[in-house]
Design brief:
mainly alpha; 8 helices; about 75% helix; about 0% strand
């Protein structure tokens, strides 16, 4: 088994993954050709509440971080405050990138170009997820939910865990559509993400930044 990376390397991978993830998600939102299910739900909630996408992401992220504490049935302050810190940075950067992509006119570009950019955004944020998952310091609350469901409730079955995790944003989208009579950021890119999210992360694990290992936590002390 590979030894863990240095803390400096892991922190750099975490920060890089956070910013690149926001970049990729911001790109998918700007194309309006479909985003990841959680992102799509948050975009629709933003239209309903008239808040920025980043603000909605922060609020939802904090709520998910609280739900994760309930799912693990114990108080893990490092996990909770780490996830809140992650979503705070992520929500800030995604607002920055959405504003930038809107400024350059991406929402009005030709359909085929926007589809290509949307798929590119999915590939980018999957690569970013690979980086901070391997760094294994803190992560996006939604990613942690999948891990909790997978290993505590569904005996390692990642597909089942992912599908259950996606039920919540699906319900949120349906509720917002009832009130707004419009659906945003649900399109071909959402289908691409559902089908390819896991495989793309796996490809990044194998081929992106070979020196960055999966840094497993070894318990040397009681938490």
């Amino acid at each position: 088994m590979n030894a863990n990376n240095s803390m400096t390397t892991r922190v750099f991978a975490l920060l890089l993954g956070l910013v690149v993830n926001a970049f990729g998600n911001g790109l998918t939102v700007a194309t309006n050709m479909g985003a990841a299910p959680w992102t799509a739900a948050e975009v629709n909630l933003a239209y309903l509440t008239h808040l920025s996408v980043g603000m909605v992401m922060f609020i939802v992220g904090v709520l998910v971080a609280v739900a994760n504490q309930l799912l693990i049935r114990q108080w893990d302050k490092w996990r909770f405050f780490g996830e809140v810190a992650f979503i705070a940075g992520f929500s800030y950067f995604i607002d920055v990138f959405i504003a930038f992509f809107s400024w350059v006119g991406i929402p009005h570009w030709p359909l085929l170009v926007r589809i290509v950019l949307c798929f590119t955004g999915v590939v980018i944020f999957c690569a970013a997820i690979s980086l901070y998952q391997r760094a294994n310091l803190i992560m996006h609350p939604n990613d942690d939910t999948t891990n909790i469901l997978r290993f505590i409730y569904f005996k390692g079955r990642v597909v089942v865990a992912q599908l259950v995790n996606f039920l919540v944003p699906l319900v949120a989208i349906i509720v917002t559509v009832v009130f707004t009579h419009h659906v945003y950021s649900v399109n071909i890119g959402t289908v691409f993400c559902l089908l390819c999210n896991g495989p793309l992360i796996g490809i990044a694990d194998r081929h992106l930044w070979h020196g960055l290992h999966h840094n497993f936590r070894v318990k040397n002390e009681k938490d």
